[in-house]
Amino acid sequence: MTTTTPSPESDPASQSAERAPGRTYLSVLDLTPSELEAVLALAARLKEERALGPEAPTARALTGHSLALLFDKPSLRTRTGFEIAMRELGGNVTCPPSTDALGTREALADVARTLERWVSVAAIRTFEQSRLQEFVDATTRLSVVNALTNEEHPCQALADCLTIAERRGSVRGRTLAYVGDGNNVATSLTHAAATLGMHLRLASPEGYQLPESTLVAARARGAAPVEIVQLTDPAEAVEGADAVYTDVWTSMGQEAESSRRMEAFDGYRITSALMERAGPDAFFMHCLPAHRGEEVDADVLDGPRSAVFDQAENRLHTQKALLLTMLG
Ligand code: CP
Ligand code: NVA
Domain containing 217: what range? Predict the structure, then answer.
């Protein structure tokens, strides 16, 4: 995880405040392999302990901390998951409207420098990753989490890895097939696969594949010998895979391209016939929200192989683990 250490000369406020330096989770690549494994192990423990309610050992772990949720795009799982996570850890949550915090009312840097006087951590969902970096660059004390950008969705990848580990015992050595758009979710899965040693086969139409630079950066982790390949044929990608993953063909912010994308992704829908190619035990994954009849057939999404609501549930446990790791 990346730490931004305050410079006392340039930030006199930090001298008196004695607050911990901010940490950032903008990308899965901000975590070392052992840090990522530790977050997942903590999430599994928190999941078990949730039944204890207010008696859980972490029920007051973040008392005195506040989380600001700054969202430029809609969200159910990420936003609500963070709200419940923070409250169950004894902390507070504030949700300033995006028009006030991320709009044109004032510079993003000034929002960051104001919020760092009040809260410990901000989770931000916005468009370009560069906006997130602009926010981080303006604050040394505030911890910042990427709650989804056009480029990456690292919180989703945490829940996905926990779900795979629950169903297969571990992530390392498993094979995930991702069929669909080479988007933010695909990028973070690629980072997670390279970090934890999971084989990943991505199948996307020409023009919608991940940039080669993303694969190069992931492989450069060198954490584990893994096969990460891009294909165009969904059947080839899913052959013998442990799990088959897809996401929407049109992400938030791309609505104007929707009809062109529907044509481009023809043949990339996850059907029960495609799931059969993966094997009898393969399970289906989707970050949600999903569109039945577009990227996935209803009988797959709603069928017995579907892990999508386990993934959704695990958003809470992994986001709790992330908050504890960053602030604890
Ligand atoms: N998967 C996910 O991030 O869902 P939301 O957009 O509802 O947060
Ligand atoms: N790729 C999707 C993910 C939504 C959780 C989007 O960015 O809209």
Answer: 154-311
